[in-house]
Every structure is written in C-alpha cells, then in structure tokens.
C-alpha cells in the first residue's frame, strides 16, 4: 500500500484528490495538510511514501517545505502539484529535491500513475516540459556551478547516458540511442546517481545543466 500525505491549502482540492486516490486499491491517504508546516509535521508523524505538495501555501510554501523534507533525509518523496503558469516554481521545486510534478487538472488515471511512479523511486519527467523548464531557468547562469567530487568517477559511457537523460530521454530511448539493453541503461543511471550523490534523475537533469555537462541549445 502506498501511503500518501496531501498538502494543499484548499479544502476542496484536498477532498477531490483524496477521493481520486482512495478509489485506487493500492493507495491510502494517511493525512492532510493545509500548509507546508503541517505537511512536514504529517510527514514526521505518519512516515508516508509520498507527499503530494502544492506550491503556493500559507505559513510555509511547498518549495521550502520540499527542501526541508528532502534535507531531513526523510523516506518520503515529493510530487509537486502545479499549473503551466508556474514554471519557475516548478524548477525551484525540482532543484529542492522534488521527484516530479503534476498538473492540477490531471485525470484520476494520471494522478494514480504519477503517485505510483514516484513512490516506486522513479522520477516523473514529462520530457518536453522538463527540458523547457531547465533551459528557461539555466539558459545564461551567472556562473557554471562546480561539479560534485563524484563526477570525476563517471565513465565516458555514463556521461553519454547523463547527457541524454538531461535532454529528457527515457531509459528506453537512451537504450535505442546508444545500442544498449534497457537493463544496462538502468544500471548506468543507478551508478550515475550514486557517484553524484543524487536522489533521482530529476536532480541529475538539473545538475547536468547547471554544471555545463549539457548546455541549453546543444544539439541532441
């Protein structure tokens, strides 16, 4: 059973999300929160698998709450709720450690699939939107961030995989591009995350752009 905390300042939104999620046989809503502070308390109390986090909330917004939750090394992963007109907030949430984002007008099937994907340890990346987000907000940074120490341990093949991953390619697409098996690509991604000390592929995308491993506008 996937245990979920719902964090949104609107009662009707939480009620709708609860109804959709609890219609699924494998998802349980264990707590609700109306702001970021309540979300953190609920995560500490209930130890959920996932927090479905709104961005704009009173007292403590979803961005700061996400950063604090991920920084506390809690087990729960964060799936951010957003709308298309909040791209900057989405990017900041991904950088803070969220494992993905979902539009508030998602269907029940999309919501359930997103929860299952993130709870399973995968990142929820819509490739076209994710690439646009990262390119928009990393286009001309004032300086290129330093590579983490583990970057020197990446093999040439792992760098190839990281570059494709950063461009929003799925494991299956990377396997086709590099003539590798799906299992081999999955192993490469796991080693990349381990060497760079990253939680998931969302953070790998952000790091790749911010450190210049991939630059906006580079050919695929």
Automatic annotation (TrEMBL):
SUPFAM superfamilies named in the record: C-terminal effector domain of the bipartite response regulators, CheY-like
SMART domains for the chain: HTH_LUXR, REC
Keyword check for Translocase: no
Entry keyword set: DNA-binding, Phosphoprotein, Transcription, Transcription regulation
CDD domains linked to this entry: LuxR_C_like (cd06170), REC_NarL-like (cd17535)
Membrane-spanning residues: none
Domain Response regulatory: 3-119
InterPro entries assigned: CheY-like_superfamily, NreC/VraR/RcsB-like_REC, Sig_transdc_resp-reg_C-effctor, Sig_transdc_resp-reg_receiver, Tscrpt_reg_LuxR_C, WalR-like
NAD in keyword set: no
Residue positions, PTM 4-aspartylphosphate: 54
PANTHER family named among the record's database cross-references: TRANSCRIPTIONAL REGULATORY PROTEIN NARL-RELATED, TWO-COMPONENT RESPONSE REGULATOR
Name of the protein in its database record: Response regulator transcription factor
Lineage per the UniProt record: Bacteria, Bacillati, Actinomycetota, Thermoleophilia, Solirubrobacterales
